[in-house]
Amino acid sequence: MTSIKELSSLRGRRALVTGATGHLGKIISETLAELGAKLVLVDRPDSDFDRLTASLAKLCSVNIEPLGCDLEQQDQRTELIAWMKSSGQFLNILVNKAALAGASRLPGWSVPFEEQTVATWRRALEFNLTAKFDHCQGLTPLLRDVDGVNIINIASTYGIHGPDMRLYEGNRKGFDCELMRAVSAAVSIPVIASGGMGTVQHLVGVVQQGQADAVAMADILHYERATMAQVRAAAIAAQLDVRKFA
Fold this sequence. Notes:
Layout lengths: L3 H5 L5 E5 L4 H12 L3 E6 L5 H11 L4 E5 L5 H13 L6 E4 L21 H21 L1 H5 L5 E4 L12 H4 L7 H10 L5 E2 L6 H9 L5 E2 L2 H5 L5 H10 L9
Parallel strand pairs: 1-2, 1-4, 2-3, 4-5, 6-7
């Protein structure tokens, strides 16, 4: 009988991930690498590819090709697509993760509506929407004739709902550890704590006291109230299980 591990294996498949060095892009890249996929990692030319590739190399042994490309620029996207086609290799998975986010610090972007600018609006459409279309269309010839093809376009809830930061922030005052412990004891599936992480110690508390299997922490990282290194340090100090890679 085929095992779950065999069913989820991506060995022999090749994946391209845009925005690979960001928080979410890094997690996506790590997951694909753990499953055995060969990786083409794309991000801005000044991105820290060395740190990401070193981290992935410690995690598992897969082929990694980092590539600097400013996806806001049509000519650089064209060069990326041409390079992929000329490489003589296949492509099974396309993950369009790169996007302008609230932390992009562009003038006229992450500001009140009345202060947003048309110039930055146009940049956002080019980067967040047109680039994804460009990749899907341009790389279709590589995707068409292979098995196990997947195109994954990462989007935001803001595509459906207007900006409501409570979707990400929760109350930042910690978790209901008693409730988490009761839920964890009642179900046989992993329980993820979400919406209360205001400090790194909230993570420690909900895992130790609430018996949570995982903790959502997008808000604390997005708004730079803590770094991943600080989160890892707190977890290690509390003797929580932490992946052993940089």
